[in-house]
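ingest -> validate -> predict -> emit
validate: passed (alphabet ok, no gaps, 291 aa)
predict: started
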Amino acid sequence: MFEGIEIEEGVSLAPFTTFKIGGPAKYFFRAKTRKDLEAVLREASKNNIPIFILGGGSNILIHDKGFDGLAIKMELNDISIKDTSLVAGAGVLLNAAIMRAVKEGLSGLEFATGIPAKVGGAVWANLGSRGSDMSKVVASVIATDMQGNERVFSHADCKFEYRHTIFKDEPWVIIEAKFNLHPRSTQELRQAMVDLAKLKKEEQDVGEDTAGCAFRNPHDHEHAAAKLIDDLGLKGFAIGGAQVSEKHANFILNKGGATADDVVQLISYIKQQVRDKKGVQLMEEIEYVGF
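emit:
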């Protein structure tokens, strides 16, 4: 099994997440090339080993016992630009892609300034912020199945919905994405990024150990999840080392030594309070790994 493939065992996943929570992966692999990625996927499939694709580590909560399978850390880091299109590997930091686009005077990705995600994860989850999301800029995606067969997905093929794509439902692993951008002056783009970063710092817990928004905004309610939680006076409420942010009510913070169980209990409590007192059923935006 995994013969000729450089696999690590028992690697703690917590340091690779923005929550800094979670146990070890049974197997751990750094995917630096398409060939290596596809080889390890074939081996995992042949041996019925579950896989987990690790991007920037945001918006995930890993079980305290870890992941009993193969965690693949994406390190496909190529970026190229042709005309007004940017192509980036799944392992490219989203902020690196934004900076490259800005340098070339291309606009469209700057809405995601400061979000600690990678391109693959951002597309997979249809990441969004400030009224925009990946569906507005993704032109196409190249992904591979578990046998190493690549396929090009058009924008329509990706089936973009609110925080959802086809890649959450079917066993395809994103290799790279192509973004259609549009020209704008570099000076204007840089100023927009400065303004967004300042706003983010004012409204969110920049630098804290958090997975980002814990809950999706409910479509069938006039208020966002953060306001529903804030209205119930839950800012600052804590269970163990997990605490509702005092700055942004839809953020849960690891205030030091928080366990995944602390976070799960806090999420459950918030959902129960909002359901009972506001009549709204919140759904997690955080993805659970190893549960």
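The two ends are 25 Å apart (CA to CA).
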